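Researcher: I'm preparing a figure for a lab meeting and need a structural model of a single chain. I don't have an experimental structure, so a prediction will have to do for now. The sequence is pasted below. Please return the structure as tokens so I can convert it later.
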Amino acid sequence: MAKPIDNEPNFDLDRFRKLLQLMEKFDVTEANLTKDGESWKVRRGPKHVHYGPPPVAAPPVAAPQAMTPAAAEAPPAPKGITIDSPTVGTFYSSPTPEEPVFVSVGDLVKADTTVCIIEAMKVFNQIPAEKAGRIVEVLVENGDPVEFGQPLFRIEPA
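Model: Understood. Here is the structure written out token by token.
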């Protein structure tokens, strides 16, 4: 069992609480801190703080409903695998406005390929594909705000 972090000699619980309050106030879901060789990664969910990737829940099963005429005419939702945003922030398709985009439609990516940057509170997070495949669609525009879990790219598995 891990020992409580508030027993650490240099741990300041009040400063940690303030960090969590700021994360909630500005709707930041992840913070990475490094100082003097020590590294902290804090992630928060909708109503709690958790460490590690978000839990994966089975999709809810809805009862069949009668289709309205508008729903019957709507095109089917695109299928495939998506690369989703791990945090709230602003989507950037390239490292700087002068440089080329990280990935384009048709590009092959590996799990560790950086596909974009998401900026939150002046922290620029490089986002890896986490899946191998070919980019078939870019679902957001450069500079768009994105939400946690929002699909950013659609890929065909390799």
